[in-house]
Amino acid sequence: MTEAILLVGGKGTRLRPLTARTPKPMVPAAGVPFLTHQLARARAAGVEHIVLATSYLAEVFEPYFGDGSALGLHLEYVTEQEPLGTGGAIRNVASRLHSGPDDPVLIFNGDILTGLDIPALVDTHRGSGAEVSLHLTRVEDPRAFGLVPTDGTGRVTAFLEKPQTPEEIVTDQVNAGAYVFNRSVIDTIPAGRPVSVERETFPGLLAAGAHLQGMVDSTYWLDLGTPQAFVRGSADLVLGRAPSPAVPGRRGDRLVMETAEVAADAKLTGGTVAGPRTVIGPGARIDGSAVLEGAVIEEGARIRDSLIGAGAHIGARTVLDGAVIGDGARIGADNELRDGIRIWCDAEIPAASVRFSSDQ
């Protein structure tokens, strides 16, 4: 297998304000755009040609990655004029594929951080004779996911919507967002209209008697759809819990990019990233957080499990816990922001004006 389709067209609305100016796959995780980790892992698995299905802020991808040669890849870009859903996006890029009808094509979503054994998924696909194979993962609480039960051989038996009652939870296996399609199956997806592979393509294939195979892989897996998950994923990459050959430095308690300025007595822990041209002031304490390019953290600030957008400014002694600060926002000194609060891009909060916590 030498080809893949990468679905990177979503608006990332759950990640706002991070995605107000940047498409979700381009938000930095562990020092580089998240998409870099996915491309590097695909290349390490033997993929050579990847077509990116773009839509929202599509113009930012090609200037950054170019033709992919720096990563040892051949990249192409196809932009949807109107959102087409997962299946429609796959069909929309089919003309750029070089595979024959029976060749496998890897398809993966641009918001999943995973340690999936990609060659094993392809081997499972070929060995089972399936038309489509799905990466499945087990989750402790599957209520937020569509369920994918399989028989004793791993063959998919149903696709079930998010369960509403305990009786509907018939399996803990869920769709993990990576697939192998025979090229011929891609060509059967209707063209020119929105199509969901989860709600239309997969159930339709199953109803028609097609062979869909599931492979349960219980390595690291995280849907980066929320700011809290994104921050966690970035930290896990730095800490080495999530695999990637694209982390720009040694894994450990922190990642400080080359042009960052960190005061000698500042303490960065828990997989914290200090991005390019960031400034971390004296006595600052930052744990499990990502400080993006050009942001400034003043002296004595306390930051935990938070994401600080590019060019943002955090005042002295301010406390952030589980907060998301948009690009260019300015938070004055002696504020306290907690519990998932989001501050929009370029917003300004005066000194000592906000004290927010869950017990107030």
TrEMBL record:
This is GDP-mannose pyrophosphorylase. Transmembrane segments: none annotated. It comes from the Bacteria. Residues 252-333 form the Mannose-1-phosphate guanyltransferase C-terminal domain. InterPro entries: GMPPB_C, Mannose-1P_guanyltransferase, NTP_transferase_dom, Nucleotide-diphossugar_trans. Pfam families: GMPPB_C, NTP_transferase. Residues 4-236 form the Nucleotidyl transferase domain. Belongs to the transferase hexapeptide repeat family.
